[in-house]
Amino acid sequence: MNTGGAERSTLRLLRGLADRGCEVHLVLSVRGGRLEPEIDPRVVVHHLRDMVGVFPARIGGIGDAGRFVIAAVKWSWGHVQEEWRSRRFANMRMDAAIAGLAGMSPRFICRAVAARKRFVFIRNDPAVDTRGRWAARIRDFHTRIDGYICVSAFVEDAMASAFPAIRKKLVTIYNLLAPEQMRQGLNAGIHPFGDAPGVIRLLSVCRLEESQKALLRMVEVHRRLLDAGLPHEWHVLGDGPDRGMLEQAIEAQGVAETFKLHGSITNPFPYYKHADICAVLSRFEGLCGVVNEARVLERPVIATRFAGVVEQIDDGVNGLIVEQDVDAICAGLASLLRDAGLRERLGAGRLSAGIAGR
After folding, report:
1. Residue 201 in contact with residue 193, Cβ under 8 Å?
2. Pairing between strand 301-304 and 277-280?
3. pTM for this one?
4. 181-356: same fold as 5-172?
5. Does domain 5-172 match CATH 3.40.1350?
6. Element counts in the chain: helices (H) and strands (E)
7. What is the SS3 assignment for 196?
8. CATH number of the structural domain 181-356
9. ∠ CA 306-307-311 to the nearest 5 degrees?
10. In the chain, where the domains are located
11. pLDDT per residue over 190-248, tens digit each?
């Protein structure tokens, strides 16, 4: 249970179910994630594995070979643990079993859990699945799944188009929000950016994964805006497999002083409070939690055109939507950097009624 939009949405769902009197069990593949301490104490947590093996990318010597052997032992022991611990769920009669996190296979809830109903969350645009994994899982398990819960109407439509066999099982349910919890987090801790009067700060919160979040494009946009005479700082919260790639791009563009990585932050809300603009420039999303957070906290937001964004932003009223193009992104950000009045007006725009009611 590491830091991420889907994980935070899952935490809110667990809390909401517990608030409604449900007995809630959460099954995690491995213990020790960053967000695990934030799981509601009413939730019963099960770990299938105590450890996971991390294999070296390549074997270039004795040291790498040793690490490979250790990783193999950990993986094998973890596999044994998972097979043994999964057996307990056959005798636990559940009303519903949900595969809730992005990318999770429904195999476990179909084969290990005795449940009256089974559901799968679809948290992203199916276009992100370039390897055919979603198609394989739907083919293998759709007869045992009672419903596919899509986080936006766009995602539901895209799933119906891509997988017509499950059209009647698709339903849109927006992620739960916790606006009061977000607002309470605003004033926790010190000013995250320090004192630098007059500096316009952009904030992006995302997993550092180039294929979905277009990290290198962010650095290019930042460099072009600086070259155009629009000074600003760009702060990024989050971690992920492509952090090294992003750091190299920052150095190559010579923007290390103005494009800053803060890593995973448990409470990101003070960063929202002191940011002038929230930039969500992903290639793919399902329904972006960062857009919702920015709107709840009344920060002006600019987003690229991805799945679900038109359900969150009324372009020009409570945010800006720009096309998936560097020139369009630069033009949109330039208008926000130049016009404090526009930032104030967009920040005051409300969240859409359907999402605000969650």
Report:
1. yes
2. parallel
3. 0.82
4. yes
5. no
6. 14, 12
7. coil
8. 3.40.50.2000
9. 105
10. 5-172, 181-356
11. 788 877 778 999 999 999 999 999 999 999 999 999 999 999 999 999 999 999 999 99
